Description:
The protein has 4 helices and 14 strands. It is of the alpha+beta class. Among the domains are: 62-91 and 231-253, no CATH class; 96-224, Helix Hairpins (Orthogonal Bundle). Helix 3 (96-157) packs antiparallel against helix 4.
Amino acid sequence: MRGKWIPVLVGAVLIALAVGTVVWRGQRHPVSPPAAATAAAIAVARNEVTLQGKIRPRHITGVRPAISGFIEAFLVEPGQDVYEGQVLARIGAQGLESAREVAQAALERAQEQVSKSEAVVTAARMELSRADADVQRSRTAMERAERASARQQALFREGATPRLAYEKALKEYEAALKDHELIDATVRTGQEHIQSGMDEVNGAKKIVADKVRQLEEAQDNLSAAEVHSPVDGCVVSRKGEVGGSAGLSDELFQIATDLYALEVAVELKAELLKRIVPGQEALVLVLDLQSAAMPGVVREIKDNQATVEFNSTLPAIKPGMQADVRFKLE
Length: 330
């Protein structure tokens, strides 16, 4: 019987030794910490720190209205590409449209008066042309009658022609002379009418020029109610609401002119203010693009905030995206 229990005892001893070994190994090798704790430990070990911020453009042009008024409409949205001269918004200024309409109506009336005056002058010139032809014919007839009358007078004095022939020639000359004088007076009157008409045309044209100036001024004022983009770029921000007021100092839009020149602003805790300095290198990691990592440099530190600038090489990187900025501490 004793021989039968020996194998059982040996087996129990072996089992006890195995359990003891497992317990001993568990005490010497604790369970690994979470991955996040491990990454933090590695970062501390490598003397690195990662801070998060929002990407923004380095070169921005602000756009303000040229006149004060109420915002009638926004025509572009943030994130939209715009070109120089494009209308971004309209500002409603009371009375501008009515002033332009009044100026337009006044100009049309002045132009109509010029047309009427020019038509009068044209008609007067045509009449004068006909009168000039008539005065030439009357002068020729008068000179011919004058010669005939002088000849009959000479013959009558010599008794070579009867009195009736002389008197008839004299009456014909007097009638021709009177007709010439009437036509000549008509020509002079026509010339005076033309000169008067020209003076009226010139006066009307001066009025037209003044009305054109007034209309251009009204149109310029109305054009000023449109907010135009001064540059090519991308709208990164917009302020104000439709129906709200807009003053000359209000910056309604911010336009980024270079979407490849970017920066990230990150907040620094007190213990990092002395360890991160301007000119220090950093690595910018775009969270939305896992493969996007670009070198950057600290441009300035102001009010516990570090601004890290970098040059993007990917069109997919846009202002407003979140980014991690990794610094290697001294």
